[in-house]
Design goal:
The protein is mostly helical and about 140 residues long. Helix content is about 75%, strand content about 0%.
């Protein structure tokens, strides 16, 4: 195991691991049912259409890939990697909120996205502090020229 794991609080890795499991589960389920893609309005959408199926598969693949990346970095524990992948996930949540506000389709899913975004921002801030603390300790340990 990496020495980086000791730097990152265990609760951060647990939260990121849970986010990973959620993304993986949502990604896998997307291969079987595309309707979550259209949670706000499914009227007039033909779910047997190849275009809709492929859109669903792309969405599922994206969620599965993000979930796997989150799981890998949560297991490895490198703060920079954890930060970058969590930022990607937070940006997706932010996009969900912005689209809901712009289109006027602010519903329960949007509130959930806002809550997840807040958790992810808290995790990101914590990780940035971990990195800064590690770098400060490194700079005091380096011999002066």
């Amino acid at each position: 195991m990496s020495h980086h794991i000791d730097l990152v609080p265990k609760w951060v890795r647990i939260i990121i691991g849970l986010l990973a499991l959620a993304n993986i589960a949502f990604g896998i389920s997307g291969y079987f049912d595309a309707s979550p893609l259209f949670q706000n309005n499914t009227a007039g959408i033909d779910f047997s259409s190849l275009a809709i199926k492929y859109a669903g598969y792309e969405y599922a693949a994206r969620n599965l890939a993000i979930g796997l990346a989150l799981m890998i970095v949560a297991l490895k524990g490198v703060p920079e990697s954890l930060t970058i992948v969590t930022i990607v996930r937070a940006l997706i949540e932010l996009q969900t909120v912005i689209i809901a506000v712009v289109t006027g389709s602010f519903k329960g899913g949007t509130v959930f996205a806002m809550m997840m975004f807040a958790v992810e921002i808290f995790v990101i801030v914590t990780l940035v502090k971990v990195i800064a603390k590690r770098d400060a300790v490194k700079s005091t340990e380096e011999p002066s020229s």
